[in-house]
Specification:
34% of the residues lie in helices and 21% in strands. By secondary structure, the chain is an alpha/beta fold. The chain folds into two domains: 88 residues, Urease, subunit C, domain 1, CATH 2.30.40; 310 residues, Alpha-Beta Barrel (TIM Barrel). The strands form two sheets. Strands 1, 2, 3, 4, 5, 14, 15 and 16 form an eight-stranded mixed sheet that branches. α2 packs across α3. The longest helix is centred in the middle third of the chain and has 18 residues. The radius of gyration is 22 Å and the shape is globular. The model has no long low-confidence stretch (mean pLDDT 97). Bound molecules: fe (ii) ion (FE2). Fe (ii) ion binds next to loops.
Length: 422
Amino acid sequence: MVYDLILRRAQLHRQEHLVDIAIQDGRFVRISPDLSDASATREIDVAGRLIVPPFIDAHVHLDAVLTVGKPRYNSTGTLLEGIQIWSERKPDLTHKDVKQRALEEIRWEVAQGTLFIRSHVDVCDPKLTALRALLEVREEVRDICELQLVAFPQDGILSFPNGRELMRQALELGCDLVGGIPHYEWTRDMGVEDVHYAFALAKEFNRDVDCHCDETDDPLSRFTEVMAADTLQQGWQGRVTASHCTAMSSYDNAYAFKLMRLLASAQVNVVANPFDNIVLQGRFDTYPKRRGITRVKELLATGVNVALGHDSIMDPWFPLGRGDMLAAAQLALFLCHMSGYDEIQDVLDLITSNGARVLRIEDRYGIAEGKPASFLVLDAPSAFEALRLVPARLHVFKDGREIATTQPARSTVKGNLVTFTA
Ligand code: FE2
C-alpha cells in the first residue's frame, strides 16, 4: 500500500510514545507506533515534534479587524471609546472594505494554524453591510477555513432602533448563530429581554446561541444566569455559549460558585478572550486592578467547557495582535494562573478540543483514524514547549492538503563566546 502521506515519529498531545500517521484521500487512515512496512508519495519525518488538530478561534470580530486608527485611534483604550469609534466607522463600511480586511485576517489565522473561526458580526446597521460581505467570505474561504457567523447586536437588541427586526433579518440572510449583548442594554429588564429574544429566535430558526454576556467589571451584571436558565427551559443544552463573562471575576465567591454549577448543569460553554479582557477590563480601578478575565480554571474544575477567542485584531478595542491563537493561549496561561504542569496541558485544549465542542464540529475534528486529515506540525516537542515558545507552525494541513508552511526563525550570536566549565 502506498499512502498519499506519512508523518514519521509524531508526538500527539498527552501520549507517551511517538507514532507514525498515514493519510489517504484526505483522511487519517492509520495511526501506529511503527509503519515502517508502509510507504507514501510524500513522507515527512517530524522527528518527535507535536502534531495537533487545527487551532480554533471561538470568538472574533472579522467586520472590525484591521481598522485600527480609522477614523481615529482609541485615546483612552477603553471599551466604551472603542464602541464609540466603531459607531463612527460603521457608516463608512463598504462591502469591498469588509471583505478585503476579513480575508486578509483569515489568511493570518490560517498561516498560524487556525482553521475554524467563529466570528460575531455587528448587525446594528440598517443595511447589514458587514454581514452581507462576510456571508460571501464564509463561502469563499471554505477550502482553507470553516467560518461560523453570529448575528451580534453591538448597540443592543432593544436599545437600538429596529434591533429585533435586524436580528431576524440577519438570520434570514443565513447567519449561523444568534447573539446578544444583555449587559449593554439600557436597563436590567431590557438585558433580560435581550437574552429571551435571542433564545426565541434560536428556537424559531433552530440555531445555536452565542451572546456577549456580562463583559464588564460590574459585579451586579448577572445575565449569564439568565442564559443558563433559558438553555435549560428551552432544552438547548450543549448549543449555547456565553462569551466574555468577565464580571465573573468580580462576583463574590458564593454567587460565582452557584453560577458555575448552573452553567455546568446546563452545558453552557464559556469563551474567554484574554487579549481584549486584560486590556479593556479593570479600567475603572485604581489599585489593586482587576484582571477582568473570567474564572477559566475554576470553570474547568466545575466541568464547564471553556475555549478562547482572539476577539480583536488591530481594531478600535485592541490595537495590536497578529491573529495567533497560540499566543492567546499563552496569555490565558499567565492571566488565569494555569502554570501548574497539568494545567499547562489543559491550556492547549482551550484552543483545540474545547473549541471544537463550542463550535460543535467534533464529528470532523481531531487526530483519529477516519477523521479528516487536518492538522498542524509545531516546531516544539510538547504542549509545555509549545506554550513556552509559541513556535512556528511548520506545516498546516486541511483535509490532507498542505495549505500553509512557515520557516522557523533562527538566530546566531556573534562575537566572543564565553566558555562555561562545570
Ligand atoms: Fe467580542
